[in-house]
Amino acid sequence: MTERIARIKDEILCTKPSICIERARIYTRAYRETESLPTVRRRAHALRRTLQEMTIWIGAEELIVGNLASRNRAAPIFPEYAVAWIEKEIEGIGHRPAESYEIAPGDKVELLELVKYWKGHTLHEKAEALLGPELKAIHDSGMVRAEGNMTSGDGHIAPNMGKLMHLGLGGYRQLVTREVQADDVSRWEGLRRRQLHLAMIDALEGFSAFIRRFALLAGEEARVASPTRAAELATIAATCRAIAEGAPGSFREALQLAWFVQLALQIESNGHSLSFGRMDQFLGPWYDRDLDSGRISREDAAELLEATWLKLLAVKKIRSWSHTRYSAGGPLYQNVTIGGVDRQGTDATNRLSYLILETVGALRLTQPNLSVRYHAGMSPEFLDACARVIDRGFGMPAFNNDEVVIPGMLERGVSLEDARDYSAIGCIEVAVPGKWGYRTTGMSFLNMPRILLATLNDGVDATSGKAFLPGTGRLADFATFDDLMAAWRRQVAFYARASVEVDTAVDTALENEVPDILCSVFTDDCIGRGRTVKEGGAIYDWISGLQVGIANMGNGLAAIKRLVYDEKSVSKDELLAALGSDFAGTDGEILRLKLLNNAPKYGNDDDYVDSITVEAYRAYIDEITKYHNTRFGRGPIGGGYYPGTSSISSNVPSGAAVRATPDGRKAGTPLAEGSSPSSGTDLLGPTAVLSSVGKLPAQEIFGGVLLNQKLTPGSLRTAEDRARLGAMLRTFFDDLKGWHVQYNLVSRETLLDAKKHPERHRDLVVRVAGYSAYFNDLAPDQQDDIISRTEHSLR
Fold this sequence. Notes:
Layout: H1 3-14, E1 18-20, H2 22-33, H3 39-53, E2 74-76, H4 84-89, H5 105-118, H6 123-141, E3 144-145, H7 147-151, H8 161-182, H9 188-222, H10 227-243, H11 251-268, E4 277-278, H12 279-282, H13 284-293, H14 298-314, H15 321-325, E5 335-339, H16 351-363, E6 369-374, H17 380-390, E7 398-401, H18 402-411, H19 416-420, E8 423-425, E9 429-431, E10 445-447, H20 448-456, H21 481-513, H22 517-521, H23 526-529, E11 540-543, E12 546-548, H24 550-566, H25 572-580, H26 585-597, H27 607-624, E13 637-641, H28 651-656, H29 686-693, E14 708-711, H30 719-735, E15 740-745, H31 748-756, E16 765-767, E17 772-774, H32 780-788, E18 791-792
Parallel strand pairs: 1-2, 4-5, 5-6, 6-7, 10-12, 11-13, 14-15, 14-18
Antiparallel strand pairs: 3-10, 7-15, 8-9, 16-17
């Protein structure tokens, strides 16, 4: 890390997040001006106006330019998605326990005035209207939750960066122009296509104008800068002029264009998890050519990459407080993927793979969210380099497994070359960059322990007191454990369908109200089909919801089977009474300890509980794969559903809404995160955890099988330690066919001190779920959840 990069990093971290209302102001004006136009044209017009009019700036020492808002670390407002939460929360926005934002008094007044225009017209309101009373009651209860999808955009996508690097923006505009000329407007379909293609041209012209504005600004600033800085600004100006229309001709130009795309798509849409895809592959040729010709040095390229990572860190997006709780620490999940195999099946690791890994490790930031694709042919050297970065203790890189993902894609109809070209998206979910539709995962959240409690009480939700599916029986009615599992399957099937019904309403509203035009340009084959991503323009399109509390579900059922049915050491009435009272009194606590200690727990390689966990989850897997998303039959290959466990930080707020559960968990406490064991119950070391997780049908859980492991600091200091981790990873991925794993290397003592003395640990980064966050940016209950996780040793 150069001194320049260190100064920029420090400036960003010292800047308090604030709210910028520029985008809200411009979008409101643009929407008012275009009320007679089709929605796609209005969206493109508003984006173009924003890119042409928003404040742009270049930091004093920046090498990569482009800003999301009028100030560093300022979050734009996206009023077309939701405004009710703004009115409700604006007065306390600066006093949240985490993710608080400053807003100028004048901006607050103006924002509340802008909100008036959007009332009754937002995505949130349109989606809720499509739910209907019964479905809205289920959603409001929290059994199925999709607030984030109704108050923000889709995200969870990677554009076709490789194609963009070869065509440039001008090349894309030529593609769209040819389609405009071919559209037959005498036909309904042709007229509809024409409107989208005109919108695409509008958005592309606005994007090019945005980049040219930076060229002009850099030129103006160069005239009054010091000679050294003037030369840098002249290079920035030349870079921006070159890529405003043409394809990049150098590594610097390619990297700057990639950042501009990442930036513009986040100005267009409020969705997060917008990812770069396989950066080492689409930028590798430019890096190799410049490096070999002497046009750039490795050190200069490293500084450019580090400058880009800092731009990612500076991006902020504000969410409602309830949505923020599901994304603790304010992550944007801007994923960069490296490694894996290439489209021919050979090792794709290259010189840029190592440089990306090195620079991410040097800065120890929360962005980008770095993922490494593991495959059986990965070199020991690259695996060791990954372990060295893991040892830096900020939760990166995470690993995804080619040996599971590629076969799983082939099963779903993805071509072999495309399957080999997949990347991680956001957290751990996967897609083919530029060819996959929105929401690879992250649809609605399904609270599995709450479904279990409803199963024990004739469908009555213990939290809300409502019976959404009565008539399946009570625990007292189940003569055998098989009877209980039959009721479980009925309840799970009901809520799986309810989640799809919620998704269908939300997706329909997203398609109708907030189509993303620029993102559709960079997703194949939206241009050729004349359809947005949400209308079926992508080549492939599968989605998943997120199932929360997998370990609690399995542990609870195993405890019932062992103690109630096998041993008969706990009566049915006794168990239900204890759960209802949250294990109150001495007898309740004795029973809680019995559930905790006398029943097997997932994460210890115990087939008794692991098989029950798989069987219970199988009920959901078999049901959800029967359904289709709203793009099915409209063009994409797929159009289906699959499961996913990448539950981000939802385990904490989801747990807050769950009464006591049969695994011995107290009411209101966090659920297990991802596919990881419940905190403190994995007692036999990291390999036992891997064995338990490896029993899940990962190739079917294609929304991702997220596994967090916490290792003792210093676990990877020696070559022998790193080799031990490498051997463990190869066993997990090659033999057990695990999907994913990531590591926290931070001690409980450090975390406790950081909670007590945050000023001493400003740079402390921890792995929360499928992402990392600054520990100080987490709410206290989320901090406690991370502190409570089991700390393993490799020795």
